[in-house]
């Protein structure tokens, strides 16, 4: 049977005017800023007006470690949101925006798939409402103002060897990872080493996604540490007087974007920090607004639960004062087989033994999520090649770990295929069994926080960090940053820092290469192993096959 591509399905969607989607949530036309007919921003005035309402229930969708076999976390998030609405619940979805770089590289878009998608798919995966361009511009403005400050006399006494604010672009471009800037003579400033990260790794992105309003945004931007003086005292963004203009550039980007699913159910798509190098969740303002206008809010956290769910719990929930009522852990039979040692080319053949072997990865994620005090259900995202014996093997494994596994066919059937999952999620969320707590307290030492995550979530034996890194953490503690959570930057493909070690490995160490203080966002970034904050394009990037067809439609996006 031939299946339509995601973009073909999205193109056939019968979208409602965005004002009608807003009306479902009680958002009047005067509180929507339309971007065309099918997307709009929600006004701060409306957000302020609903703050006295009770919160709905928050459902987190996370997953096993990603494999080339595919897991379908966003697809499941969308399918579950549609399924909840199908069974008569007032539900909405909150997901991240897609980064341009990965769209043209290997990862593809982030709008779901099959008959569980958010539309307009093409716009969401390209320029959308311009949020990422605004973040890039605000970040670049600060970069320009730092070098301009140095050029015109350096009143803040910045040590040009200790400028820590890098530049950003929303594209995978390895050639920009390390650069030398200000070459070309006296009129171009003082030459120094610099570099680029991808926009979604920018601290401005993290700040926008954690700020509660424009006033909080401006304060956090001012708190960004951009450089150090010769005496190693920090120079802040507010010392350069850039935070006001940056806030102006981000004014509209702070407002959540309202769109719809293929089944015309409402969704906020807002913000997009990478999950392996940042905290990997959509914006706090979108999630908290959704909780005021819907009874159930389905959101996702990036990559596997060792990264996305851990950061959602320890960073986003802690900062925003929110807590999930239930967690959906997405797995596929194909991924279980791959974790069990089957090559990608052989995944189509039944192999129950490999499924059983690969379930160890799933089991560890179940244990980890449970450790946060939240009830869990496993969603088996159905593929047409799955056999009944393989699906049953996953069900049996989960039952032995005290959780239920529900087969969900939303990719193929939309909400009809996710009804069973939706009913189970409602049962868990309404059970009152959630007793959420982060896995470390605010006042724990920074290195101890790193060790807690490494040992309890990754099951590592130890954290390897040289004295320079340990001293840096101590200095930050003494400077008043001890209470910050830590944001682990590591490969998404494994519990270890080696992307090739699948399954549930033990007996490994976590090497810390560098630590970065994100004082504005309010966390410490811990760079582990070979992780890059600027990705590169693969040998055959997706960009090679993206083009306009004769009808002027986009082809090649996925």
From TrEMBL:
Keywords: ATP-binding, Ligase, Nucleotide-binding, One-carbon metabolism. GO terms for molecular function: formate-tetrahydrofolate ligase activity. It comes from the Bacteria. This is Formate--tetrahydrofolate ligase. Belongs to the formate--tetrahydrofolate ligase family. Transmembrane segments: none annotated. The keyword ATP-binding applies. Pathway: One-carbon metabolism; tetrahydrofolate interconversion. InterPro entries: Formate_THF_ligase, Formate_THF_ligase_CS, P-loop_NTPase. ATP binds at residues 67-74. It catalyses: (6S)-5,6,7,8-tetrahydrofolate + formate + ATP = (6R)-10-formyltetrahydrofolate + ADP + phosphate.
């Amino acid at each position: 049977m031939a299946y339509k591509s995601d973009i073909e399905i999205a193109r056939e969607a019968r979208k409602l005017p965005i004002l009608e989607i807003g009306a479902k949530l009680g958002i009047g036309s005067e509180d929507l800023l339309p971007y065309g007919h099918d997307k709009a921003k929600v006004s701060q005035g409306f957000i302020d007006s609903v703050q006295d309402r009770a919160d709905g229930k928050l459902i987190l969708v996370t997953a096993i470690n990603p494999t080339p076999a595919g897991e379908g976390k966003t697809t499941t998030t969308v399918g579950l949101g549609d399924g909840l609405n199908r069974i008569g619940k007032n539900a909405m979805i909150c997901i991240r925006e897609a980064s341009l770089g990965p769209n043209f590289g290997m990862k593809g878009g982030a709008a779901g798939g099959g008959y569980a998608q958010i539309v307009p798919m093409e716009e969401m995966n390209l320029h959308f409402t311009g949020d990422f361009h605004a973040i890039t511009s605000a970040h670049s403005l600060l970069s320009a103002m730092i070098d301009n400050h140095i050029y015109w006399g350096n009143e803040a006494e910045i040590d040009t060897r200790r400028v820590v604010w890098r530049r950003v672009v929303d594209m995978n471009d390895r050639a920009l990872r390390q650069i030398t800037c200000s070459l070309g003579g006296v009129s171009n400033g003082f030459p120094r080493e610099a570099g680029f990260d991808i926009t979604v790794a920018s601290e401005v992105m993290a700040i926008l996604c954690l700020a509660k309003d424009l006033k909080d945004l401006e304060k956090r931007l001012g708190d960004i540490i951009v450089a150090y003086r010769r005496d190693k005292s920090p120079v802040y963004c507010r010392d350069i007087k850039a935070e006001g203009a940056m806030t102006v550039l981000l004014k509209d980007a702070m407002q959540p974007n309202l769109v719809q699913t293929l089944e015309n159910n409402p969704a906020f798509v807002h913000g997009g920090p990478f999950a392996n190098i940042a905290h990997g969740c959509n914006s706090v303002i979108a999630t908290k607004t959704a909780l005021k206008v819907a009874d159930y809010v389905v959101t996702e956290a990036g990559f596997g639960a060792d990264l996305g769910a851990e950061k959602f719990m320890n960073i986003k929930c802690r900062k925003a004062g929110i807590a999930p009522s239930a967690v959906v852990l997405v797995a596929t039979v194909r991924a279980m087989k791959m974790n069990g040692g089957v090559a990608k080319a052989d995944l189509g053949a039944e192999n129950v033994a490999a499924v059983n072997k690969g379930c160890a990865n799933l089991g560890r994620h179940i244990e980890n999520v449970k450790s946060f005090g939240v009830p869990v259900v496993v969603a088996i995202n159905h593929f047409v090649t799955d056999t009944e014996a393989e699906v049953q093997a996953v069900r049996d494994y989960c039952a032995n770990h005290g959780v239920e596994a529900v087969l969900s066919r939303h990719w193929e059937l939309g909400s009809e295929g996710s009804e069973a999952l939706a009913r189970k999620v409602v049962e868990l969320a309404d059970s009152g069994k959630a007793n959420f707590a982060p896995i470390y307290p605010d006042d724990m030492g920074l290195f101890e926080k790193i060790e807690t995550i490494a040992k309890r979530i990754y099951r590592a034996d130890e954290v390897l960090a040289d004295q320079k890194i340990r001293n840096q953490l101590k200095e930050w503690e003494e400077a008043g940053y001890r209470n910050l959570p830590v944001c682990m930057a590591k490969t998404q493909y494994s519990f270890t820092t080696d992307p090739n070690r699948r399954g549930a490995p033990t007996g490994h160490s976590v090497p810390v290469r560098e630590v970065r203080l994100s004082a504005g966002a309010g966390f410490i970034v811990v760079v582990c192993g070979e992780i890059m904050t600027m990705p590169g394009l693969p040998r055959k990037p997706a960009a090679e096959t993206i083009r306009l067809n004769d009808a002027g439609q986009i082809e090649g996006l996925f």
